[in-house]
Each structure stands twice: as C-alpha cells, then as structure tokens.
Amino acid sequence: MTQIPPAGTEAADILAALGCPLPATGRPSPIDGSALPAVPDCDSVDAAIARSVSAFEAWRSVPGPVRGQLVRLFGEALREHREALGRLVTIETGKPLSEGVGEVQEMIDICEFAVGLSRQLYGLTIASERPSHHMREMWHPLGPVAVISAFNFPVAVWAWNACLALVCGDSVLWKPSEKTPVTAWAVQSVFDKVAKDFGAPEALSQLVSGGREAGEALAADHRIPLVSATGSVPMGRAVATTVAARLGRSLLELGGNAATIVASSADLELALRAIAFGAAGTTGQRCTTMRRLIVHNSVYDTLLPRLKKAFGSLRIGDPRDPATLIGPMIDAQAVTAMGAALDRARAEGGTVTGGEAQGDCYVAPALVEMPAQSDLVREETFAPILYVLRYSEFDEAIAMQRDVPQGLSSSILTNDLREAEAFLSATGSDCGIANINMGTSGAEIGGAFGGEKETGGGRESGSDSWKVYMRRQTQNVNYGRTLPLAQGVEFDL
Ligand code: NAD
C-alpha cells in the first residue's frame, strides 16, 4: 500500500481545497483515530427555522422548472468535486473509497432525477358530477422541510430529500448526524456557492448543528410541516410521536433487518457474491444490510463452508486503500455492541465464525449459525453479523422472513419461477424492497425507497415520492351561471 496521510490531515486538506477550511481538532476518524476537522456550531435552531420560513416564502413563487435549474447546477458542482467529496465520506465514515464516491454519485443521480421532475409535478383532472364544472388536483409547495440524517449515509439520504424538496418549492433545514458533520459541512458549502451564484433566497437550504436536542427542536416546531428522519427505530418513534402531537407530517426511514432466502435451485456462485457484499459490505452498517440468511437444507452444507472461506478472505483495512473491502466501523462503541451481540448468540447456542475485533474500530465480519430465529436475531445490531438459519419448506422460509418487527429489504436466490413470483406476491415478502437473484442492499435512486412496520412506512428518492414534499389541493371551478350542488342537494333561497 502506498503511504497514506493521517485521515484528519487529509480531510482538512480536502476542505481547504474546496474553499471551506476547518481546523483538524474534531472527533477522531474511525480509520486511524486522528482528529477530523471540527465543524463550528450553527446559529440557534429557532433562528434557522425563521430564516427557512422567509426563504420558503420567496422560493415557492419561483416556477418549478427554474427551481430545477438550481438543482442542475448543484449536480454539476457535485460532479466537479465527486472524488474529493467521496474521499471525505470515506474518511469520516470508514466506508471503502468506491462506496464513498458512490455516495456522491448517488447525490448526482438524484439531482438529475429532480431536474426532470421539476417539469413533471403533475396533477389530475377529474370528471365533475356538476354541469359546467371543472375539478382538478394541483400540487403546491409545502413549507420548510427538516431533514434529520444518520451517520451511515451522511450525505446521499439528505440529497434524496433536499433535491426533491427544492424542486417542489420547499426550503430545507438539515440536521446531519453528530458523528458525520464534516461531509455535511463540505456539501453544504458546495450548495451555498451554487445558490449564491444562482440568486436563490438566502438560507434556502441550511445546516442545523447539534445532536438529539437539535433534532427534537425541529420535530417539535409547528413552522415545519414535514420532518424527514433517517435513523434508528427509537429515534423514529420519538420523532413520530412529537410530530403527530402537533399534527405535522413525518417521513421515516428507520432500521432494517433484511433476510435473504437461498433456495435449493440457487446459483451458488452468484449467491456467494450477493451474500458477501450484502452482509459484510459497508462493514454491515447499511439499513439494507443482509442480517439473516435462510438456507434450504439441500444446499446448506455446500454453501456454508464456501461462505466461511469467502468471509475469511475479505480484505480489512484502511478504506482509502483500493484493495480494501471492509473498512472500520464508525466508532469503538459500535465494536462493543457487535461483541455483545455475538456473546448473546453463543449463549443461545449459536456457532460463531469470525467476528474478532482488530484494533479500536476494525472487526472481521461474523457468520453465526443459529438453531432458531430468536429475539436477538429479530433485533437490528448495526454490525457485520449474518445469522444463518435452515429451512425445508418454502412457506417456512417466508414465515421466517416476515417474523421480525422491521420491513425494509429482502431477497431470494432461486431459479424456480414459482418461488420467485410467490416471493413477490402479497403473501410473500412483507418488505418495501423485494429482490430476486441479488442481495438486499444497493438500491437505485429511480425506485421509491423505504420500508414497512418498524422501518417507518416512508418512501423517498424516486417514483412518486415527491408527493410527500408538496400539499395537494383539490380545485373546483364553476364556469356556468347556476349553482348546482353535489349529491343532488337542494338549497334554494
Ligand atoms: P440514530 O437514530 O442514532 O441517529 C440518527 C439521527 O437522529 C442523528 O442525526 C441524531 O442526532 C438524530 N436523533 C437521535 N435521537 C433523536 C430524537 N429523539 N429526536 C430527533 N432526532 C434524533 O441513528 P444512526 O446510528 O445515526 O444510524 C443508524 C440507524 O439508521 C440504523 O438503525 C439504520 O438502519 C438506520 N438507517 C435507516 C435508513 C433507511 O433508509 N431506512 C438509512 C440509513 C440508516
């Protein structure tokens, strides 16, 4: 491996080159413990919301396609800084470089999607039962949108929300994870420059710093009609309760517990790759990470030894080294939580292969053969642990896939058309995402992303997810000279 500088120094250099320098005196990088740049605290949440309201009042009157031009220019600026920002994602989160750059590419992709969308915010015309009347639906901007984001996708999930919100005519308040403020700072700086040159209203999209309290303040404020929150189930439960109490709207993207079924007809070569990336990729820190493998008895004894070998050969190390497949976890606390889950699994009769801690934040991914689906397996441990279970009948596998509180992602590896279609049917997978012959992670931006049950029910990114960022108005126009009432009601004076 060529000489790589300390992560904190490199992050500070990247920020300086981007024109938004900060001193390297912040939290430790998961890569080598060196101090990352320290992001200064922003203004109070209250003042930020007041500015966001003013920005919204100006922005909502700008035509949609013109709003789209701002997002187009933002996408171009992201493209220009793709490698630098991708490296910063890697340095701050510990995900391998191709995934760090991939996250920036995801922002660029959603910019392109949003630009097209800016000319397609379609409503409906509906047949009216009254003569000489028109009825139609029109979509209007909603208001300031709060985006609370998680550490594991420090910028892409914000972009899913912000780019759609901006073309929909909303202003944006972004509270990034307190574990990953540096990339947020850099992306916000790129946005600020573009917005200034464009002549966008001041504070159209702004950062809100802080941890849980800042998120709670956003959730509680009646000036924010929509709170989009990504993170753990307990966080989502708290946000949902607060927002519901003021009858606001929340969009929740919470924890997952994805299962993959390996059927007797599965292509085992393809299965090995799908399982290794799905379970161990991003060091198990994706909401869509494969956490449960439900394997048919007939292929179990062939697949498991190969899987153990594949897991054992995954290269662990500095994620800036292109040969690395498994970078560090986000912090030492995450490593401790993984160790505790493995201890519980052993106590429940599980057989653990791998899973050793290797220094402060590095771990080997673990395969855990479990006698049954226990409460432990039903929990989301945000770490590279794959619980392996056996099945003999297809219905049994589906029942196991469904038997968890979360409902984000799922997949089946099979060459049996009946099984594949049954998996996609109403009685098959109960998740927001259902895949055939692939793993459970790595979604594209074109589809609506989100999940059921404790995952929160939200949908973000592609398809018609934009509708949540707007308010729908049903409009009735009487172009006649009389006043007929609906349902034949009479009220003659
Ligand atoms: P987290 O819940 O600890 O924090 C997420 C964000 O919520 C942070 O910005 C945090 O400051 C804020 N927050 C915490 N408590 C809050 C409260 N009471 N009110 C308002 N804001 C609050 O999650 P994390 O550890 O950063 O991320 C990992 C979790 O996120 C995992 O459970 C993962 O599955 C989930 N996740 C889900 C998706 C999805 O799309 N479904 C995507 C990424 C991550």
Characterize the structure shown.
By secondary structure, this protein is an alpha/beta fold. The chain has two domains: 7-254 and 456-473, 3-Layer(aba) Sandwich (Aldehyde Dehydrogenase, Chain A, domain 1), CATH 3.40.605.10; 258-436, Aldehyde Dehydrogenase, Chain A, domain 2 (3-Layer(aba) Sandwich), CATH 3.40.309.10. It is 40% helix and 17% strand. The protein is built from 15 helices and 19 strands. The strands form five sheets. A seven-stranded mixed sheet has the order 10-11-12-9-8-14-15, sandwiched between helices. A five-stranded parallel sheet has the order 5-4-3-6-7, with helices on both faces. The model has no long low-confidence stretch (mean pLDDT 97). The protein binds nicotinamide-adenine-dinucleotide. Nicotinamide-adenine-dinucleotide binds at residues 148-153, 157, 175, 177-178, 211-212, 215-216, 219, 230-232, 235, 238-239, 253-256, 287, 380, 382, 408, 455.
Features:
493 residues; alpha/beta; Aldehyde Dehydrogenase, Chain A, domain 2; 7-stranded mixed sheet; 5-stranded parallel sheet; 40% helix; globular; binds nicotinamide-adenine-dinucleotide
